[in-house]
Write a structure and sequence with these properties.
The complex is a heterodimer of chains A (about 170) and B (about 425).
Chain A lengths: L2 H8 L3 H19 L3 H5 L2 E10 L13 E5 L1 H12 L12 E12 L4 E13 L7 E15 L2 E11 L14
Parallel strand pairs in A: 1-6
Antiparallel strand pairs in A: 1-2, 3-4, 4-5, 5-6
Chain B lengths: L1 H8 L2 E2 L2 E3 L6 H13 L3 E5 L8 E7 L2 E7 L5 E5 L14 E3 L3 E2 L6 E2 L5 E3 L20 E5 L2 E5 L7 H5 L2 H9 L7 E2 L5 E5 L5 H6 L5 H4 L1 H7 L18 E6 L2 E5 L19 H11 L1 H10 L3 E4 L3 E4 L2 E9 L2 E8 L1 E2 L4 H14 L7 H15 L5 E3 L8 E2 L5 E4 L4 H15 L1
Antiparallel strand pairs in B: 1-2, 2-22, 3-12, 4-5, 4-7, 5-6, 8-9, 9-10, 11-12, 13-21, 14-20, 15-16, 15-24, 16-17, 17-18, 18-19, 19-20, 23-24
Helix pairs in contact in B: 8-9
The chains are: A alpha+beta (about 170), B alpha+beta (about 425).
Bound molecules: FE2/S2 (inorganic) cluster (FES) and fe (ii) ion (FE2).
């Protein structure tokens, strides 16, 4: 691969960058506000949602234990469980807000992009201990052009404290 | 210890326990000594340290320990606390090391805990043989499960395990080679509650239809969990008190077909079924494949949670950690182990479909116990449980036979 091709593959135009950030802000808002159906509408049929555990050197969803490793079907079930209104761990849903920063963009092909960013998420554990829990880490999303917006087909959440005991995490992180 | 004994007596009624048992700090300290240092406790499984020099670190009560595979291939457990001035020797969850070298003043210890190196030796005049790492008074294993006690008078492990040995055998014999591999890593879930709620909840067969209503609605209709939502008369599973605080939910009577407990059929995993038949003979293999794994607490800190191995770790009077790892089978296809991994993640862990909800209940129980507290009733099923000749007690799956079994052994040990 010559140098130019390398560049053109990873370069993302400023117009695309802006619309990717807009998409991810919306995705964050839906997750924060427990708007499960609207969040679900942002996903592609090959979605994979992965929160690796931090204790293994080379996490692999097929061979090492993960906090979450959902294919599309399992994620649909996760959301269906939340929507029963009987999911005690999110009954009521945690009020929360997350902030995204330090974006890095990459084009995977003409129509597919990868975005990485840091996040800080403030969760108020209203169902149980009524404490504010702070979650921090890095997101990696993969998105596919869908009309004039995008569909998400991969989200990896690297928690900074994934190797240590985690409190209940029944919301969409 | 008269105070402690009285302390315990006052917290038990007729089929009831006082909720201050979850909130009393002095009692917590007494438990660390009587249950975790003076009794037998589970440390880890040999498959976690497969090669010489491999080690893992664990907490036994509040005592940090290292379990290491020595150069000769044995397993050694030593305190994770330098014999010089008490620095923690290994602060990683796992690793590989030819010896343990302290980062404070550079003392070096062998895998067996002997002091083998002191820098600037001109100033040392003591005999190094009395400056080794502390070790448990006894160490023993059963089918690769390593247990220790700090009490030289604890008696043999076999006596403590009793019937729990059969349960461990039942778990590992789901592998055609009789071996399991705890190689998928551990997930740790923090509960803001007293540790005793973990063994209690893990073998409480009463709560599933209520606490797990959301799970049952979404997942159960066509799964192995269907039986959790059946009516009282339809439910065939049992609660069992095996003695010594080891208690179980026995789901085998609910299973009609082989491999129902894994949500699959023998047609879908023919290689596995074949290798089981080769290993155990047709009849025995089929029985194992219908009955499935145990769902049992091995007192006080090990949980054989179907295809999970779990550890109950106390942290303080109102905090504990539940560790779990999928019980992967040796001698089966990667595909089958991947299924076990997925099932394990669905059931246990902070984001799981089951345990996430149990955690919330435990945390609410802890808050509610924080004031004057009150008596908690454990009488359910006392009138209909059956005491068998071998001393085991069997109840309906929704009966509190298991919780009574846990508490009566707890009371006995704590009062001794
Ligand atoms: S504390 Fe370990 S060498 Fe001094
Ligand atoms: Fe439960």
């Amino acid at each position: 691969m010559n140098r130019n091709e390398g560049n053109s593959l990873t370069e993302v135009s400023s117009v695309d960058r802006q619309s990717l950030v807009d998409f991810l802000s919306l995705e964050a808002r839906y997750a924060d506000e427990a708007r499960y159906d609207e969040w679900d509408d942002l996903l592609e049929s090959d979605m994979f949602y992965w929160v690796p555990a931090g204790d293994t050197e080379a996490p692999n969803p097929e061979t090492t234990v993960s906090v979450i490793a959902d294919n599309r079907t399992r994620l649909k079930n996760r959301i269906a469980q939340l929507k029963t209104g009987l999911r005690l761990a999110q009954q009521p849903a945690s009020p929360m807000r997350r902030q995204l920063s330090n974006f890095e963009f990459k084009a995977l092909s003409e129509n597919e992009f990868s975005v990485e960013c840091n996040f800080a998420l403030f969760e108020y554990r209203i169902q149980a201990t009524r404490e504010m829990t702070i979650w921090a880490g890095r997101y990696e999303y993969r998105l596919r052009r869908r009309g004039d917006s995008f569909g998400m087909f991969y989200k990896r959440v690297e928690l900074t404290n994934a190797s240590d005991p985690l409190p209940t995490l029944a919301f969409l992180i | 210890m008269d105070g402690a004994r009285k302390n315990i007596r006052n917290r038990f009624g007729d089929d009831s326990v006082h909720s201050t048992i979850y909130t009393d700090r002095e009692l917590f300290d007494a438990e660390m000594k009587k249950l975790f240092y003076d009794g037998w406790v589970f440390v880890g499984h040999e498959s976690e340290v497969p090669k010489p020099n491999n080690y893992i670190t664990r907490m036994i009560g509040r005592e940090p320990v290292i379990m290491v595979r020595t150069r000769e291939g044995n397993i050694s457990v030593v305190s994770n606390r330098c014999a010089h001035r008490g620095n923690m020797l290994c602060h990683q969850h796992s690793g590989s090391s030819r010896s343990f070298s302290c980062e404070y003043h550079g003392w070096t210890f062998s895998h067996e805990g002997d002091l083998v190196g002191v820098p600037l030796p001109g100033g040392s005049h003591k005999d190094s043989s009395c400056l080794g790492l502390q070790k448990p008074a006894m160490q023993a294993e059963h089918r690769g499960f390593v247990f220790i006690t700090f009490n030289p008078d604890a008696g043999p492990l076999d006596d403590h395990l009793g019937k729990a040995k059969d349960l461990i055998d039942r778990s590992v014999s789901l592998s055609p080679t009789g071996k399991i591999k705890l190689s998928a890593g551990w997930l740790k879930q923090r509960f803001r509650c007293n540790w005793k709620m973990l063994p209690e909840n893990s073998t409480d067969g009463y709560h599933a239809p209520f606490t797990h209503a959301s799970f049952l609605r979404v997942f159960a209709p066509d799964s192995q969990y269907k039986m959790l939502s059946e009516s009282e008369d339809e439910r065939k599973s049992k609660t069992v008190d095996w003695g010594n605080g080891h208690v179980a939910l026995e789901h085998a009577p609910s299973y009609e077909e082989p491999l129902q407990w894994l949500g699959t059929t023998k047609e879908k995993v023919p290689d596995y079924v074949e290798s089981m038949k080769e290993a155990y003979g047709e009849e025995e293999a089929m029985r194992k494949l219908v009955d499935g794994p145990p769902h049992s607490t091995v007192f006080p800190n090990l949980f054989l949670g179907e295809m999970n191995i779990a550890i109950f770790q106390p942290v303080s009077v109102d905090e504990c950690v539940l560790w779990h790892t999928p019980m992967l089978l040796d001698g089966v296809s990667d595909k089958l182990n991947a299924r076990i991994l997925r099932q394990s993640q669905a059931a246990m862990g902070p984001a799981s479909f089951l345990l996430a909800d149990d955690a919330i209940i435990s945390e609410r129980q802890q808050v509610a116990a924080g004031g004057r507290g009150g008596w908690m009733d454990l009488s359910r099923g006392r009138k209909r449980e059956e005491k068998r000749e071998d001393g085991t007690i069997w109840g309906h799956i929704s009966d509190e036979t298991t919780n009574r079994g846990f508490w009566s052994h707890y009371r006995e040990v704590m009062q001794a």
